Amino acid sequence: MSLVEERYEKWVHHPNLDPRYKDVLENMSEEEKNDAFYTTIEFGTAGMRGLLGPGTNRINIHTIRKATQGYANYIKKNGEEACKAGVAIGYDNRHMSRELAFDCADLLAKNNIASFVYDSLRPTPMLSFAVRYNHCFGGIMITASHNPKEYNGYKLYDDKGCQLIPALADAVIKEVNAIEDELAIDANCTEEQKKLITVMGDDVDQDYYKHVLSIQLNPDVKKDIKIVFSPEHGTANIPVRDIFKMTGYTCIPVEEQCTPDPDFSCTPTPNPEQPGAYELALKYAKENDADLILVCDPDADRMGVGVKHNGEYVVMTGNQSGSVEIEYICSQLRAQHKMPEHPVMFNTVVTSDLGEKVAADYGVETEKTLTGFKFIGEKVAKYEITHEKNYVFGYEESYGSLVKPFVRDKDAPQALLILAEACAFYKQQGKDLVDVLEELYQRHGTYEESQVALTLSGEEGAKRIQKILSDLRVEAPKEIAGVKVVKSEDFQTQTIHENGEVRPLEGFTKSNVLKYFLEDGSWVAVRPSGTEPKCKFYYCIRGTDKADAHKKTELAQKAMSELTGA
Question: Can you give the residue ranges of the Alpha-D-phosphohexomutase C-terminal domain (predicted)?
């Protein structure tokens, strides 16, 4: 009997199998069976994320219980105080999210571990905030972020409200992997143990709002702008509208997308990296002559932005909106004589060079991290202790940013407020946010940043993704679209290749990422997604102007497609 058959038979006949999964299992095709059982779902760059359904490679009540029991065992090894401090738990609008969140609380209670569970859905950054607010040992967020409706996921946080860095995640994973039978775990706690569960509500929300309002740099700016806002059926609806009401901005919600619908019925996609997320918001913007479109992903850690520019609406990339945030924040800190000593900004190895150049123009150092905001959170925690450097901003290319680190994850409500303020501020100067971006290009060079994601599902897809990366290591490109590769970085082997020499790449955890630097100041990076069955290709292409950068981007994308067969 194959491993897949062995796992399948165990599940379909197990006496503790949740009844809802029985029919699904019995009607699986061989292909579905293989995909559900060929491996066990694992932690990636943002915890566990996968398709909902029965199987060891799926998100379901049993795999979540296995993860939570492993986490509970880890907490207990940290002592009685860790158990008393407990775990904050949040959840989004997805299928099973609330059920899984309260099941986690019950299972922790069964292990005599306290928990603080939100009374209804909340954004991921508010879960991060709740960890700190309640002085918890850690946190759990049930969410699949921007993934399609068929997905759900599970994120773990440390006592600072930061997603677990690899060293801590490995310790938890060790405990999870030691559990042999996930189906044997139940969450039946006693009435006395139930008292360990505290339901959180408005008190935590109000303190979070107070902190968000503190990020304003020009709170008295004339707010004569109209903002169209969509939570994409997710968690941002109430918090963001509350924050805009408190600060006096005119917010026009996309009503059809304000219901917490797990099927995302009124949006083609909940992912702000994809054009479909803006379709209805664009309609609203045109009808209301709005200045700004702001769109959140379902768990409200990321935010997309559209800007009215010369009568048309321009959707910015995460690299572009991040660069504009940096420009506004740094320019105002300098103008108000509030720039701290030894200022530092954080972004990732696949984030555009433009933001780094903007920061440098204001004397702000940039430190790069691997993809995953936990690495930025780790840096924040380090300098909070050493005081060597002072945080100014952190962001990723995928629409995630953090203005002030009272949260230790991407925080879309903060980003929405600072961009609304920037929009209002620059409008008084006769400019919009695209005008600001154009000025940054004039000062620092024109860039076109893009990402191409190759979706390869199932066991064969996973093998194909690994082969793409391994083939590139065996035969690295010497040029891309006719432009010489002058340096490459391999984050898996932790080496830098330049001028025929190899030297160590220091300061990063091992990760399956390759990055190629080109002679013209451009670069291309390749990495497998840590949250979806995709191989991602990142392009940061520098040109003499926008047309030149665009043409070079098309050529580079074509060259990489031909090189990898993607």
Answer: 489-539
pLDDT at 460: 83
Q: Other C-beta atoms within 10 Å of 80: how many? A: 9
Q: Judge contact between 104 and 191, C-beta under 8 A.
A: no
- Amino acid 455: pLDDT: 86
Alpha helix stretches (DSSP H) within 445-517 = 458-474
Under a CB-based contact definition with an 8 Å cutoff, are residues 428 and 328 in contact?
A: no
Instruction: Write down how long the chain is.
Output: 566
* Mean pLDDT computed over every residue of the chain: 96
- pTM, to two decimals: 0.94
Residues 435, 397: Cα–Cα separation, whole Å: 20
Q: Tokens representing 195? A: 């008292």
d(CA 320, CA 314): 11
Q: How far apart are CA 386 and CA 382, in angstroms?
A: 6
Query: What residues have CB less than 8 Å from 283, skipping those under 6 apart?
Result: none
In this predicted structure, which of 16-30, 33-47, 371-385 has the lowest mean pLDDT? 33-47
What is residue 46's predicted lDDT score, i.e. its pLDDT?
65
Measured CA to CA, the distance from residue 138 to residue 132 in angstroms comes to 9
Is 524 strand, coil or helix? strand
Q: In the beta sheet, which residues pair with residue 51?
A: 151
129 neighbors 204 (Cβ within 8 angstroms): yes
Phi, psi for residue 239 in degrees, rounded to 5: -60, -45
Q: How many CB atoms lie within 10 A of CB 30?
A: 9
Instruction: Give which of 109, 121, 100, 111 is closest to 198, Cα–Cα.
Output: 109
Q: State the catalytic residues.
A: 145
Residue 190 burial (CB count, 10 A): 9
The distance of Cα 359 from the centroid of its chain, to the nearest Å, equals 22
Give the distance, in angstroms, between the CA of residue 506 and the centroid of all CA atoms in the same chain: 24
Which pair of structure tokens corresponds to residue 16? 């503790």
Confidence at 458, pLDDT banded by 50, 70, 90: confident
- For 271-300, the DSSP string reads -TTSGGGGHHHHHHHHHHT-SEEEEE-TTS
* φ, ψ for residue 302, nearest 5 deg: -125, 155
- Other beta carbons less than 10 A from residue 46's beta carbon: 25
Q: What is the pLDDT of residue 520?
A: 96
- pLDDT tens track for 323-345: 999 999 999 999 999 999 999 99
Q: Across the strands, what pairs with 348?
A: 369
Of 539, 519, 518, the closest CA to residue 527 belongs to: 539
What share of residues in the chain are helix, strand, coil (percent, to 5)?
40, 25, 35
Mean pLDDT, rounded, for 344-348: 98
Q: Is the pLDDT of residue 317 over 80?
A: yes
